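All the exercises in this workshop are built on plain-text protein records. Instead of coordinates, the fold is spelled out as a row of discrete tokens. Once this layout is familiar, the rest of the handout is easier to follow. The record below serves as our worked example for the rest of this section.
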Amino acid sequence: MADAGGGPRALANSAGALQVANQGVKLSAAQQALRIPEIIGTLMEGIHQRDERFDYMIYDADGEHEKYCDAVNLLSQCAFVNKLWYSEALRLIWRKSQDLRWNRTLLQLFAKIPADRRQYYANFVETGSMMSVSDQMREEANETFRGILFPKLHTVTILVDPYHNLPRVDCPNLQKLVIDPRREFYPDFWAVTQDDADKIFDDMVNGFRHVPSISFIDECYAYVGAVQGLIDL
């Protein structure tokens, strides 16, 4: 396990070696290589794609508090080295937005970012999730994404709750829409009724008419022909 985590940790710990360049100290060939964007990008891709079996826990001195160390955590450490490492790490950290915090939606993530910085992060996002929101939350949700473009977003998973509204997200290159009725959360009853499903599907039609692929996870309680109506778009 130590070998699996040692590489990324050693990469992040080389910050001191890179900083000496500003003090007139000659860098070795290896240290110079760590200042080349293409090399840093390749190394961080390796961290980002690392096997989840190599994730590990960090405990404090008392062994009571723990911290889960995964690819996002390691890339976050790399981001503190310098501007080059920061830009390369951030690109990968935000690629799969739902990995930043377990199952956090695009709305939950971007609502916490200052409005004038949202576009900066939106430029990195390639996959994300959304959740249907209540009538009371609809305008606030739409305001969060107003004027924001997600140019690389190609896959969106919609987590269905018994609400009828989906936030309006501008993602012109969306290729796949995954609908998850989340039956594991409501195993004993249909929280989303057939009427609810109809209204949610209508919102999908209005917001994602251009998407070429729509798929379902698990079961969906809907009127006969409702799902086919989505397929026929």
Remarks:
- Residues 1-6 have pLDDT under 50 and may be disordered.
- The radius of gyration is 22 Å.
